[in-house]
Amino acid sequence: MDEYRFSNALDYTHAQLSEMHNLSFSGYFFPMTITPAKSANYWRTHQIDANRCVVMHDRHGDFVGMARMGTRGRRGWCGGFGIAPQFRGRGASHVLAERMVQVARESELATLQLEVLTQNTRAFKVYEKAGFVAKRRLFGLEMETSALPAGSRLQTETSGPEAFLPLVYMDGDPCWGCEPASILTLQTETITVPDPQGRANSLLVWRTHEVAEILGAVFQSELTDGELVTVLRRAAGDAPKLWLYNEPEQSPFLARCRSLGFKEFFTQYEMSMQL
């Protein structure tokens, strides 16, 4: 470990941080390039803690890799872990993972968690060796809005994210990026199906020009496929594509979306460790 130098991220601008991110994720399974503005938004949305991030250089000052760490109370989350291409295959990832865990322990966090793509077997082994254990699988599904089947007549109401917050943990623990602390940093909308018996039927969506991302869904009534499609169309708005992102494998909503024709575009393991 003497051949490497470590620091936190306090002294770096988002221009520098995005450059380090892009280098450490070059050659990844899909494009991960970000701008300084996207870096800043990511840090804000996921509560990345610059004091607990680990930036790694070699003894000559060349950038080796970086581990971003978000914190919420005594919980930690690795929100980005990568090694620059010229240092891959030389054990640097193991050194960075060990240092990340050390920093988490020394700062008195109780747990540390992360996600890793199922096809990223090398990273999975690095995290396992560092002490992480796979807890569950998370799935990403997508569908072109125009490909949705026909919907049914259905009354819905729209409101802000506060209407969905009481439902976030109803069907189990969401992933880090779908917890209230992240939701409240985004301009989201709740689509609700009124129910005379007071059952919860709501979907939370975050829209961009390219995609409508479903951040959470709870349906206690037995909606027909046509009724659910109507809710999904209203959630999509003008976005050409719908995403269901990091949905837990046991989620009933995941199964419903698959039955409607949503296709899987990624799956990953959620891993965690007690510190």
From TrEMBL:
- Provide a Gene Ontology MF annotation, just one: acyltransferase activity, transferring groups other than amino-acyl groups
Cross-referenced CDD domains, in alphabetical order?
A: NAT_SF
Question: Ranges for the N-acetyltransferase domain?
Answer: 7-155
Domain of life per record: Bacteria
Q: What is this protein called?
A: GNAT family N-acetyltransferase
Q: Which residues form a coiled coil?
A: none
TM spans (from-to) = none
